[in-house]
Write a structure and sequence with these properties.
The protein is an alpha+beta fold. It contains 5 helices and 14 strands. It has helices at residues 25-34, 56-76, 105-109, 113-117, 137-149, and strands spanning 5-9, 12-16, 39-42, 48-51, 79-83, 88-89, 95-96, 100-104, 126-131, 154-159, 164-168, 175-178, 182-184, 193-195. Mean pLDDT is 92; it is low at 1-9.
Length: 200
């Protein structure tokens, strides 16, 4: 595959494909399946962002997050949860894979079977990103803003390094919690209280 330029941001490699190569949504999905050992996202401008798999410790913290979200989601039964391997095509054309996400069941059921089988063309209602040691905080903050701009109703950015949780809601200033014990999602996820001590 030919690319016009390559640049590296932290532990990610960003490939500039345009105007040499244009990947359709189906081609991007197939490319990601062929390279399943990598985490691949696409920006709204068409850049491919290639990330190595998360470290074992970060993977464990992601699992603790998913365990709590899945347990709550099963009881609540109004939506469906996704782990970091799920990709979503946002309205702005980017393809993103949050560390954890949740979507109202009514929105999920409105998608066709073929849309569900690949990268669903929808923005989750709730997204979480966990900052790994190699992640740039500003890059993750920009990604959280992108989720909100594309329809997310709630986002949490968990910065393990500084023990802070940033809360993102539409039309509100970002709230930063210092070393919280729990974070609740009651504005969208009634009754969901994340035990952040399992994530630190």
């Amino acid at each position: 595959m030919a690319v016009s330029t390559t640049k590296e941001i932290n532990s990610s490699i960003v490939l500039q494909l345009s105007p040499v190569v244009s990947l359709s949504e189906d081609s991007l999905f197939d490319f990601c399946q062929l390279n399943s050992h990598l985490r691949i996202e696409r920006s709204s401008s068409g850049e491919l962002i290639i990330m190595s798999p998360a470290g074992s410790e970060t993977g464990n913290r992601n699992a603790k997050l998913m365990q709590q979200l899945s347990n709550w989601s099963d009881k609540d039964a109004t939506g469906i949860e996704f782990d970091s391997s799920a990709g979503f095509i946002l309205p702005n054309g980017s393809t993103r894979s949050p560390d954890a996400s949740w979507l109202k069941l009514t929105k999920w059921n409105a998608l066709s079977d073929s849309q569900k089988a690949k990268f669903a063309p929808i923005c989750p209602d709730f997204v979480v990103e966990i900052r790994s040691p190699s992640d740039n905080l500003k890059t993750l903050q920009d990604k959280m803003s992108e989720y909100l701009d594309n329809g997310a109703s709630l986002g949490w950015l968990i910065d393990r390094k500084n023990r802070q949780v940033y809360i993102y809601c539409p039309n509100q200033d970002v709230q930063c919690l210092d070393n919280p014990v729990t974070v609740n999602g009651d504005s969208l996820l009634a009754g969901f209280n994340l035990d952040v001590t399992k994530i630190w």
